[in-house]
Amino acid sequence: MADDTMNKALISLALPLLALLMACNMGAGGNASSGESEQGNLVGARIGAPFTLTDQDGKTVHWDDYKGQYRIVYFGYTYCPDVCPVDLQRIMQAFSAFEKAAPARAAKVQPIFISVDPKRDTPAVLKTYVAAFHPRLVGLTGTTDQIAKVAKDFVVLYNAEKPEGASEYLVSHSRTPYLFGPDGKPIALVPVDDPGTPDVDEGAPDIVRTFLEKWVK
User: Where along this sequence does the record place binding of Cu cation (predicted)?
Assistant: First the structure.
């Protein structure tokens, strides 16, 4: 991940926006409705929209191609030096454990990685990257405009940090892995570790597995 200060700034912008999007799931007094724990903390949020992107095999894919499946959607990029690979490893470890424990339910889930660095993340680059985490993880990329639209529709903030004259760069982006239902609507945020609480591991594989067991029916 890029500079930690920049990442915190992006997250600080993303969280209020998510709160606004989720407002329709709140009662008149501003508290979550009594059914929130049964529904998921993103139910009613305006997150997600139809898209057309390219997968790691160079095939054109659409959001509706996954209709009828639960979808774990994670935004990141293959050149990320730390956070992205750690998050993906933990999420996919949890998914592998879920597959062993409940294969029929796990078969209803499609994990998806969407790049916020389309200039470098070609289908060939993504193919090698996603294969390192799980055989069912799909990697998606597209044009700069396509990725910008998808990020906006999925409430993801990102910014390339390229020093003048440098050939390499990092990309700061918000960490918002989502679980969507078979209807394509958001259910809840997939747990990831919070660097602000070093004594608590919120994104441990067993926690993510419990999350999947709870929401994937």
Answer: 80, 84, 173
CA separation for the pair 156, 54 (Å, rounded): 19
CATH of the domain at 198: 3.40.30.10
Any known ligand binding at 62?
Answer: no
Alpha helices in the chain (DSSP H): 4-21, 36-39, 83-101, 103-106, 123-131, 144-153, 205-215
Q: Residue 175 falls within a domain, yes or no?
A: yes
3-61 confidence digits (pLDDT tens)? 444 444 444 444 444 433 333 233 323 333 334 457 899 999 999 999 999 999 999 99
Q: Answer whether residue 38 is part of any domain.
A: no
**3-class state of residue 217 by DSSP:** coil
Q: Is residue 173 part of a domain?
A: yes
